Amino acid sequence: MRTKFNTLLSNTTFALCGMLLSVPYAMANERNALNRADEKFI
User: Fold this and answer.
1) 6 phi-psi bin (left φ>0, alpha ψ -120 to 50, beta other)
2) Cα 15–28–31 angle (5° rounding)?
3) Cα 27 from Cα 21, distance rounded (Å)
4) Can you give the pTM of this predicted structure?
């Protein structure tokens, strides 16, 4: 029973860390897309 809990906790921790690490890359892509749209407008 304790091993199941540890595995679940480890998996959850890895998933949360992965999501937190991917946020800056997603935000960078949004900024680049906005710049391209501005360039087309100009």
Assistant:
1) alpha
2) 140
3) 11
4) 0.54
SS3 40: helix
**Cα-based torsion angle of the residue sequence 30, 35, 36, 37 in order, rounded to the nearest 10 degrees:** 90
Query: In the structure encoding, which two tokens stand for residue 14, read together?
Result: 């890895």
**Structural element, H or E, at residue 36:** helix 2-41
User: Token pair of 25, please?
Assistant: 């890359």
Of residues 40 and 35, the one with the higher pLDDT is 40
Locate tokens 């100009």: which residue?
A: 42
Three-state DSSP class for residue 5:
helix
